[in-house]
Amino acid sequence: MFLKRLVLGIVLGLFVGGLAAFGVVRGLGLETFSPLIAYLSAAATGTLVGLVAGKPIWAGGAKIEAGLKAAFGALLGAGILFAIRRWLPETPLSATHWPLVTGAPGELPAVALPAIGALLGAFYEVDNTPEPKAAEGDRTRIASNKVRVSKGPSAILEDDEEESSPKARTAKKR
User: Fold this and answer.
1) d(CA 33, CA 41)
2) What is this structure's pTM?
């Protein structure tokens, strides 16, 4: 299950990152980008991956989780781009894949944005892996530990006060 979620996250992240790179290259006409555009694009890619990877925003009850993943995805996307620009070797990519485009990996949207998407997608999908199903005995034990509150907090306090009264203590002894 883990490997399946990991591969799904990588593929989903590559797709979202590829779409973001396509938007930067074709939409903005930038084959290499400046640091400002790079970090804004990385943050946008992280946001989009956070909305669709793991538990997507359209899943039931996932709006808050997807919003948090999107917010942190923007920060993580910018952080990953910083790491790519800072520590990835400055070897220019050219000739074989993009004959007209040369530059360091952190300067090329077609390289950096899909990498960011793949890393975040894999992280979010693996993080959302469901727990293995418990055995039947474990499920009943867990269910018996749950407390149901139906009257509200003030009613619980009143019940506790009634149980601590002398009449309640004598009734319990009988």
Assistant:
1) 9
2) 0.69
